Amino acid sequence: MDDKYIVKATFPILNMACAACSAAVEQTLRVQKGVLEVTVNLASAQAYVVYDKRITSPRKLAKAVRAAGFVLVEPSDDENETVAGYHRKRVKQRRIAVIGSLILFVPLMVLSMTMPLVAHLHYIMWALATPILFVFGWGFLKGAWQQARNGRANMDTLVTVSTLVAYLFSIFNTLFPEFWLERGLEPHVYFEASAGIITFVSIGKMLEEQAKNSTTAAITKLMGLQPKNVTRIAANGEMVSVPIISVVVGDNLMVYPGERIAVDGVVYGGDSYVDESMLTGEPMPVRKQSGNEVFAGTLNGKGVLYYKVLKTGDNTLLSHIIRVVQEAQGSKAPVQRLVDKVAAVFVPVIFAVAIVTFVVWMLVGGNEAFSHALLAFVTVLVIACPCALGLATPTAITVGIGKAAEQGVLIKNADALERACRVTSVVLDKTGTITQGTPSVVHTHWCDEALARRVLCDIETRSEHPLAQAVTSYLQDMVAGEITHFETLPGRGVMACIDGAKYYIGNSRLMAHLQLDIPVEMQKETAQWECDAYTVVWVAATDRVLAALAIADALKPSSVQAVEAMKQAGLQVYMLTGDSKSTARVMAQKVGIENIEAEVLPEQKAHYIKTLQQQGEVVAMIGDGINDSAALAQADVSIAMGTGSDIAMDVAAMTIVSGDLSRVAQAIHISRQTVTTIRQNLFWAFIYNMIGVPVAAGVLYPCCGFLLNPMIASAAMALSSVSVVSNSLRLKWKK
User: 686 phi and psi, to 5 degrees?
Assistant: First the structure.
């Protein structure tokens, strides 16, 4: 199949009420021609769809979903505002329904408790209950009807059937009380029960809606980082404020102090510090000067920056992060498959249990058989909660992945999030992972600093040696002078003539060849550098040594603490590198790693991980380069440094945006917290239904005469969903 026709997209889905709804949407999309993969997340109200654009389109998918009774929002410029507007409207409707229901329900309850004292009481209760059901509870009735038309049932169906049965039975008893009186029975009415069900479920839904909106706060925050307008610099130098959608690659933009950077670009003027914490999780602002990259969504400090646009729209780093987080939040953890199977049959099974309950009560209930049977039937329908089951996993995953994103860790899918909690061993690449990935000057010893700096600048700016860049970067803004002669000395270094004098830059063999006297203190210091596996670069004139520099791929500032954090988390830490054994040993000692493997080829890295797996270890591999891609693919959990290659990030299940190794332990910690929360949610959701449904059916009545009130059942049902979402939200504040 040609990949250029395959589209991966995330669509907002509106009007879903419970797990049965998300299952219905998922099944509807899955059977559409051209759809290759689909998952629907109830918590984030989104569908992640992989489809062939030659066969289907968002419009066709939206039409199919609409026929199933739901709404798929097609991509557009105002898509986010459409969805946000829907949710604001939904919360407002829920709030109005709750307030209106309570205003009528409170006097209804008071009347039900003063039944013998008020004439024509039943008619007054009927009048109070009717608007609660058909005005404030209209959303439930409408949802149930839409599902019934498609041959499906969901939570709305359970609420609608239970309330209408109680309501219609109460009307019959109000209009024809003699039917029961002639048979020696009291004509009970349950207007307060049907109204109470709507009221308590509405309260639960309002709280649930607000809580669910909080679970997606991370992605909402990311999507709000890009400004609507930017300042563009025209060809004549004029500065004009334009909409961001009009910006194209190559435009010159200016960002004022305190403004957000609109698109990815490279600075060509100005000097400022930029807060990148919203993308990388790093709290310290980063200095930006000419030649430095800037990213959409980051916050400029007190200086003015001028930058040329490199990437716009969906190609920016911010858009990439949003896309990865959305796809991850929409994915399903392996444990969700069991929940999906239960949710798919949950409502039909509850209806079957309710009918069996009714029949049993009719057979063994005695004089009050019908009343008890009806109450038990209604209560079973009301107390069953597919929402708690449906929300248990996706809410925790949505919060967990969002929390990781806020800390600069991109997790590609729920499967990786769940697997990370079982990791026992972490394998680290050295270059670019533990170290900075580029050589730099780490120590210097000057004998004649001014002359040595000039010689280094003049010669190294003309050199193609890999270490020359480290030296020129160290010298920064020095300007090279004239050289009249340049000669390479194989295996030793280079020689150049500057202002008629000869100068040399090279290794210790060059110094031995020149037979120059080296001060004792300098000899000791450079000998220690060599023991530390640094590369020593000497600078000399024909008659004396001018300087010595130690060049190394320096450790990242956080590497030592990161390795220690992994050990404290109970993880075995390994280091793999293609470098020499001496260099690897020195570096491992510095960061506190005992298990090292040096001089390994890329394919040997993958074999090493496979060996650990055969020993029963669950392995996480952290790397940054193309040569790490095979090992990343072999590992149980693959983690790429965001400062590395795109190939490594494509292969990896997680990406550390900033390249800060300390985020690895945080990612595994978040995984463990999330999986623990999922297990807690599922435990309570299953236990709630396993205990609640039998109690509602009346299993306690023979031993203690207890029969659950439908209103209490509806309150319990609402509380179960809210408690699951609230438990997931606790993840946001856990450390």
Answer: -70, -45
